[in-house]
Amino acid sequence: MTLIEQVRRKLNITWNDEETDKRINDIIASAVLVLKHKLGIADADFDFSAPGLENILFLAYCLYEWNHAAHEFDSNYANELAQCRAIREVSYHLEHENEVDSDAE
Fold first, then answer.
1. Is residue 38 within 8 Å of residue 25, measured between CB atoms?
2. Measured at the alpha carbon of residue 56, what is the angle toward residues 34 and 89, in degrees to the nearest 5?
3. Which end of the chain has fewer CB atoms within 10 angstroms, the N or the C?
4. Contact, 49 vs 55, CB < 8 A?
5. What is the distance, to the nearest Å, from the Cα of residue 27 to the centroid of all Cα atoms in its chain?
6. 96: buried, middle or exposed (CB in 10 Å: 19+, 13-18, 0-12)?
C-alpha cells in the first residue's frame, strides 16, 4: 500500500476531490521532512510506508496535522520519538565503530 493510501485510510478519507488530495500531499511532504528531523533519519530515500515504528509515527503525525494539532504531537508521542531516535543513534554508532575497526586493520 502506498503512503498516500495509508494516510487516507488513517484519516478516514473515503472521498476524492482535488482540494483534499492537495492537502494530503502537502501534509505528507511536510511530515517527511519533520519526522526525518525528529527521528534523526539522514537517508534521503527513507520509506515511511514500510511497517514499523517510523510508519506508526508518520501516520500519527499526519493525523495531528490534518486536525491542525501538530503542536500537540511531540508531547503525546515523546516516548515513541525517543525510542525511535535511540535505535537510530545506536545503529549509527555501531556502523561507525565498525568502520573505525576495519580502518585500523
1. no
2. 60
3. C
4. yes
5. 12
6. exposed
C-alpha span between 76 and 3 (Å, rounded): 23
The grid coordinates listed for 46 are 527513507
Which grid coordinates belong to 14?
473515503
Rounded to 10 degrees, the C-alpha dihedral 83/86/91/96 comes to 170
Q: Which of 34, 88, 36, 21 minimizes the C-alpha distance to 64?
A: 34
Q: Collect all residues with Cβ–Cβ distance below 8 Å to 89 and sequence separation of at least 6.
A: 40
The average pLDDT across 4-15 equals 97
User: What digits encode the pLDDT tens for the residues 68-104?
Assistant: 999 999 999 999 999 999 988 887 777 777 665 566 5
